[in-house]
UniProtKB/TrEMBL annotation, chain A:
The chain crosses the membrane at residues 12-35, 55-80, 112-135, 141-165, 172-190, 210-235. One of its GO terms (molecular function) is ABC-type transporter activity. The keyword Membrane applies. It holds the Pfam family ABC2_membrane_2. The keyword Nucleus does not apply. Keywords: Membrane, Transmembrane, Transmembrane helix. It comes from the Bacteria. This is ABC transporter permease subunit. GO terms for cellular component: plasma membrane.
From TrEMBL, chain B:
It comes from Sedimenticola thiotaurini. SUPFAM superfamilies: P-loop containing nucleoside triphosphate hydrolases. Gene3D superfamilies: P-loop containing nucleotide triphosphate hydrolases. The keyword Nucleotide-binding applies. One of its GO terms (molecular function) is ATP hydrolysis activity. Residues 5-234 form the ABC transporter domain. The keyword DNA-binding does not apply. SMART domains: AAA (SM00382). Keywords: ATP-binding, Nucleotide-binding, Transport. This is ATP-binding cassette domain-containing protein. PROSITE patterns: ABC_TRANSPORTER_2. Belongs to the ABC transporter superfamily.
Amino acid sequence: MILTLSARELRSLFQSPLAWSLLGVITLIHAWLFLVQIESYLKIQASLVARSSELGVTDLIIAPLFDSSAMVMLLITPLLTMRLLSEEYRTGTIQLLLSSPISPRQIIIGKYLALLGILSVSLLITAMLPFSLLLGAEIDISRVLASLLGLFLLLASYGAVGLLLSSLTEQPAVAAVSSYGVLLFLWIINLSNQSSLFDWLSLASHYRHFLSGLVSTGDISYFLLIIAACLMMTLQQLEQRCGKG
Amino acid sequence: MAALINIHNLTHHYGDLCALDSVSFDLQPGEILGFLGPNGAGKSTTMQIICGTLAPTSGQVIINGSDLQTDPISAKSQLGYLPESPPLYSDMRVDEYLGFCARLRKVAPSKVAQAVETTKQRCGLTDVASRLIANLSKGYKQRVGIAQAIIHNPHVIILDEPTSGLDPNQIQEIRNLIKQLASDCGILISTHILSEVRAICDRVLILHQGRMVYTGHISAEDKNALIIKLDANRESDYLADIPGVAQVERVDQQHFRLRLSATTSAADIAAAIISQGEKLYELRPDHSNLEQIFSQLTTGEMGT
């Protein structure tokens, strides 16, 4: 039942040019950033060797790549999430789902799984870049895996926030803009170094731990908490529309 | 048999606006119930509530024994619903869409293909099966909408203005389809076309300003009334003496309304009039009963 919904969602994403163009853009931008990092690394490689520095490709190429990837995806994800529920409201197809023997919880999980599906595809594209370095260099694989886990959790959180905001409006554009607002705010909230609370709230501070290879329960739970909270609120929103489901 | 739909004291408020006020009724198996009412009377609201897409402020909906509030999944699995605007994914093909609807309504995976095929035939969609829904005409979209409502052979079919946007031939086809469907389930239809109610419904329910103001069978009496037009200058006293005429009412100089007993047909009356040497200019069934009830109940202020 849930998978039927996810499959439809994915098919409609991939039948429209939107998903393809976004994946294309993701690939292009990441590849460019990657090449730029490699180039600058090659420039300073000699001096690194001369100073017998401990910094290697993982620090100087892969970590910056993942860092910018978080920003690129922040721009892309809301475009993927904006239609999830708002389009259903707008065209009335939500009535089909709500009048079917399927609970609002299943509807939301189905949509979210589809979203995770397409986000995983983009994650794979991103992952291919650092692993391509294996051809000519040694990289810290466990650190790359930690970064990938971090990026996955980050994208899943982006998606959950986007889904929530999509459930609040009938206008996909409004959903997208408000997702940008919320995500960007969560990203930069630690800029004011006033309180450790702000630092804890920030997506960036948790994500960067993963990039340095640090996988901690605290950071993982932070992302899971965001995802769970957003999905619960989305469920609340949908149930309010149709009564207790 | 137990009622398929049992509605008890349904009330719904949109903010301060009271859209539905203590509406109660039920739907029996094999029955086509027509929902009449002027625009904004609460027809669509009632249907949305029955189908679980809108939460009522208070009241109870029981569908074939399952309470919509406490057991929504089993209640909804008995339902087929066509909302006011058909809920179509315009980026899907007709086949894909119907397959998706069938799976969504828990048709067994092995039977999906067959259900899609049967439904396409029933609704006349075989020719457009591989077309994108976005490219279909309004009439076809409406038919796809009806198809998704009946694909899982539900016990209760709820159609919100099923014939809107269709041409006269299609309307006839859809009406035939609806009558055919009613043999094994209960159907609730909303419309504001009175002739449609008369053509297909067994019972009618009139809503006005959120209240149920009338409910009654499309009576045999109504079906057995005739309007005739006679020569203006002739005596017409004999009309009441024709066997089978229960009541004669003079509408104007030339028109009379005859109420017939159940066994009398229009042909008997025509023959009787001709045999009196009278000229019969016009003879047609009288449908004014429902019109009268409708306009009386829904124009002007309600009493209480």
